[in-house]
Amino acid sequence: MAKPRDREKPGSRNPGSVTLTEVAGHAGVSRSTVSLVLRGSPLVAAETRERVQAAMAALGYIYNRGAANLRAARTQTVGLLVCELNNPFYAELTAGVDDVLDTEGFVAFIANTAEQTDRQDRFLQRMREHNVDGVILCPAAGTDGELLDRLDGWRLPCVQALRFVSDSLESGRGRDYAGVDYQAGIETVIDHLVALGHRRIAFVGGTLDHSAYAGRHAGFTAAMRRHGLADDLVLRCPLTRRSGAGIADDLLNRPQTPTAALCYNDVVALGLMLGLEARGLRAGRDLAVTGFDDVPEAALSRPALTTVATSARQIGQEAARLLLRRIADPQGPPERIILPGRLVVRQSCGSPSSSLHHRDLS
Amino acid sequence: MAKPRDREKPGSRNPGSVTLTEVAGHAGVSRSTVSLVLRGSPLVAAETRERVQAAMAALGYIYNRGAANLRAARTQTVGLLVCELNNPFYAELTAGVDDVLDTEGFVAFIANTAEQTDRQDRFLQRMREHNVDGVILCPAAGTDGELLDRLDGWRLPCVQALRFVSDSLESGRGRDYAGVDYQAGIETVIDHLVALGHRRIAFVGGTLDHSAYAGRHAGFTAAMRRHGLADDLVLRCPLTRRSGAGIADDLLNRPQTPTAALCYNDVVALGLMLGLEARGLRAGRDLAVTGFDDVPEAALSRPALTTVATSARQIGQEAARLLLRRIADPQGPPERIILPGRLVVRQSCGSPSSSLHHRDLS
DNA sequence: TTGCGCTTTTGGATCGATCCAATTACCGTG
DNA sequence: CACGGTAATTGGATCGATCCAAAAGCGCAA
Questions:
Q1: Key word Ion transport present in the record (chains A, B) (predicted)?
Q2: pTM, two decimal places
Q3: A339 near A181, Cβ under 8 Å?
Q4: Which of B41, B214, B259, B261 is close enough to B36 for a disulfide, judged by CB 3.0 to 4.6 Å?
Q5: Residue B110 CB neighbours (<10 A)
Q6: What is the pLDDT of residues B228-272, one digit of tens each?
Q7: In angstroms, how far is C1 C1' from A178 CA?
């Protein structure tokens, strides 16, 4: 009614958005000086800095990172590709990544590749368009090792987490990676089972070929051989509760029934325990069962599941820190951060310690 | 060795990055035409379009969204703030959001506010700097209703998910929201418990005040009154397994012990069941217990938990779709998408149907 | 041939920051 | 007082796209 029209600068994101130039005018200095203040340069005098900051506050100035990035070629953003976000384990990893990035002023684009390489490729393409400073990648199963070379060609720093794709031969071993020592974790489990008297041990679960499978399997083989036991009882199946339950028959109808089933992860183990129960059997009494991951429900199941705790959140934090280092120094030597798993003995493997009151709650 | 030096344009993100101008040169057209092709404009002739696309492919052109956005003031990015990412429920929501954004060519910045409003504020600030087109917000507990007015002032489209902050009075009711009908879900549970003969029912869990608590509590009160029952047995506690277990004593040492405990969510219910067991009692026999959410372990616990299934992934999808509509039309009328919960009857409330073989696996 | 309308293409200005070389201010010293 | 040196500030060019008004090309009717 009164005013003729709101000033609508069409190009700007918000009608009345404040730019660095306006701040400069208000503070009585030049654009360049304001820019230096923004970036915390030690060059500006304390008195000037305060004046500029006051002006920014007074005008409600919002830093336009898009504009800054166009010139400066760094964006304070990273891409985070997880292969299965709905798995609580990866959710925890994501939270860990966010923890570190938040304190460093970075933000992450997220993508759930759902184990689909085409979705993974599409997202990486978008990450390039958005000019991220780097990516954290839990490669989808079936990812070609050549992908890493492509990332190198793009000069896009990349840290792999939890899994890594098999490196192409020519490109010198070693890439940035943060993950769990699957092999050692599995070996600990085997050692524990063997100490309990088990001799015939099956390895159960996993269909997709990736490093996390390979590491576990290597651990199984190595430990069994070390103890002079047969390492040929390997049953592959999808990583779901249902297929874990379904594999019980398979397991029990062997010529020589195993006395222990070391499962790929907790989900399969929990499923297997259900399958046993449906047949009137009980984990820990009729068959020792162990898992991997220590998901919250592992402590809760009956019998509670013996498993290997892997701190997903911490791995996320390490991966993020590693990526930030790599962004700061693209040429530095590759690092591999491998956290140990921790054996958590509960009742499912028939250990004697099984008072309900000592059961740990999440 | 051979070449004197790689051409290093310092300002550009990658040494040899290809720009729109170079594509134009290669295709023998102007910058503007290439730009039109990029945006799929119908103005360019088919023959020209093909020539440009061939040039882009030949040169390995990568679209620079940062540059585009500087001028065009839209970024094809959104912010996603979840209050508790490590909760599998929110992880599922995130996956749903990602599903929809992926098909629409958007990407999401993620943040885990961990129920901390300062972290939430900080992230929103960054989202403004990155000039996102909108945000999906699961507001942290304790979020001031005034935040939404601030977002309005910033012209930042916002869709709330799963929770909403109480609207400030002056700003006309109704904001975009996608969530679960908590109240109806709880009422269904009460109806079921009453049908089973329960008369004294406790409402257990929840400490933070937000809409998701209020909705559940309203459902409890409404349904109890509808049945002519007392609605005063409300025990608040943190949403953890441990405090769920701890509340068992509280519950059983009442003057009139309730016969049923309707828990805020599955986590509390599962904890309560453990607490009962530690006291030699059993859910479904000595006390009916119900949850909310239907997390995977609900089907797995012993006894299996009666609960209300809420499709987190679908809510994420709806929230994302809603936000995209809002971005396209900032002035349109607000929408509230409220999905119903689905009562899943299992054994923990003492229902007769309890064959192990019919138990559902995830 | 001229003029009109339609389709297709174009150049210059612009978005809001950073980079860099140059300039100014100021102080102590020979 | 000129000079060198340091500290602080500045203006112009620049990043790579979009926007817009204008122009070019072209077919057709008067």
A1: no
A2: 0.87
A3: yes
A4: B41
A5: 26
A6: 999 999 999 998 888 888 899 889 888 888 999 999 999 899 989
A7: 78
